[in-house]
Design brief:
Blueprint lengths: L13 H14 L5 E2 L11 H13 L11 H15 L8 E4 L1 H13 L5 E6 L3 H9 L3 E6 L10 H5 L7 E5 L11 H14 L2 E5 L22 E5 L12 E4 L5 H12 L4 H7 L6 H21 L16 E5 L7 H12 L1 E2 L1 E2 L11 E5 L4 H15 L1
The protein binds pyridoxal-5'-phosphate.
Length: 381
């Protein structure tokens, strides 16, 4: 048999496997409540769709500049000014194919084989899996309720490894917990002092239920910011994201982008220009997430689920189910087959303690969230 590279032998993204099982069940005629995949059930804003239709009729969809079209980069720069009061030069903004594309570019441009990168566990699994396939050593730093499920300077001080990079995510997937602005400043400072490249994944900014999320960009210029049109902007399938990068990295990232995929999708870029005029519609989505979140926080305890990570932002609840199972994967399979509710087992996000957790996504319709809570209560009590 011909060889398959060792670098491709990475674990699956389990949530995608769960989604396939849920879709197969739906295709066979059984109903499914989808609380597994982290995507808004609402479509892209109307104006984005109208703009895409207009652009399609005009049919001028060639390659664009590898770093993205200027108009969109300028709009994003303006968004930083209006939202956070910082003014990144549009030249430092790179349009990517989803934030997944941005993560890959940031890892390729920051790290070499054998480098060492720290991240919180539980955390987004693709960080670890992508880095492993690039030959980068991953240091998983456990976080829990004592650290607000986020990395803290004090914990990082105790690490024996010398980190070349640190990835943070606030609000986090899977926990929804956020890094306070003072902790964010501390983390940027900690990385600056050690020559550690900080990559801040800010994909869930805009979806918050208390304090506004703070951007690492407010505290340093050597940080790499990762963001996306997939979540707050409700454009998941358009596969568009962005990075804000240090001036010194512009050319190397441009060369990587040119060689890896030439340019991000033209249609999505042109349509996304309109999304910054759709804030009312986007904030209505966030209002729905808040209603769904409050329903679950009120009703899950009636089903015996009471221990959650703090749901400060994003659209996830990371619930402890250790009193019900020590195998969250089997638990989720049984839940799907017996009551048609799809959730993601915690082992996708934490190889050790994740067997005692499940992640629920509440970005769906409120009616589905109410039904899921009722089915769970009946099933578990
Ligand atoms: C924390 C985090 N980062 C990055 C991504 C990748 O998203 P996309 O490639 O759609 O921008 C996701 C998707 O769920 C995520 O949760």
């Amino acid at each position: 048999m011909l060889k398959i590279s060792n670098r491709s032998l990475i674990p699956p993204f389990i949530v995608m496997d769960v989604m396939r099982a849920a879709n197969e069940r739906a295709a066979s005629g059984s109903d499914v409540l989808h609380l597994e995949v982290g995507q808004p059930s609402s479509p892209a804003p109307k104006k984005v769709i109208e703009t895409a239709q207009f652009v399609l009729d005009d049919d001028k969809l060639g390659y664009t500049d590898a770093l993205g079209i200027s108009l969109l980069r300028e709009k994003i720069s303006g968004y930083y000014r209006d939202t956070y009061g910082v003014n990144p030069d549009p030249k430092r903004i790179v349009i990517t194919s989803g934030s997944s594309g941005g993560l890959l570019l940031s890892f390729l441009s920051s790290f070499d084989v054998g480098d060492c990168v720290g991240m919180a566990t539980p955390g987004y699994p693709a960080y670890k899996n992508m880095l492993k396939s690039l030959g980068v050593k991953v240091v998983e730093v456990p976080v829990d309720s004592k650290s607000h499920f986020q990395l803290k300077r004090k914990v990082l001080d105790k690490l024996s490894e010398n980190l070349d990079g640190l990835i943070i995510s606030s609000p986090s997937n899977p926990t929804g917990s956020m890094i306070s602005s003072s902790d964010m400043r501390d983390l940027v400072d900690w990385c600056d002092r050690r020559g550690t490249r900080l990559i801040s994944d800010e994909i869930y900014h805009g979806i918050v239920y208390g304090e506004q999320a703070s951007t690492a960009l407010s505290y340093g210029t050597d940080v790499i910011i990762i963001n996306s049109f997939s979540k707050y902007f409700s454009m998941t399938g358009w596969r568009l994201g962005w990075m804000v990068i240090p001036e010194s990295m512009i050319r190397s990232i441009e060369c990587l982008a040119q060689n890896l995929y030439i340019s991000p999708p033209s249609l999505s870029q042109m349509a996304a220009v309109a999304v910054f005029d759709c804030m009312d519609e986007l904030n209505e989505n966030v209002a729905r997430y808040r209603i769904n979140r409050d329903i679950l926080l009120e009703k899950l305890p009636n089903a015996g689920l009471e221990r959650f990570a703090p749901v400060d932002g994003a659209f996830y609840i990371y619930a402890n189910v250790s009193h019900l199972t020590n195998d969250s994967s089997e638990f989720c399979k049984r839940m799907l087959s017996e009551i048609g509710v799809a959730m993601t087992p915690g082992i996708d996000f934490d190889g050790i303690n994740g067997k005692s957790y499940v992640r629920l996504c509440f970005a769906g319709a409120t009616q589905d969230i109410n039904q899921a809570a009722a089915r769970l209560q009946k099933w578990l009590i």
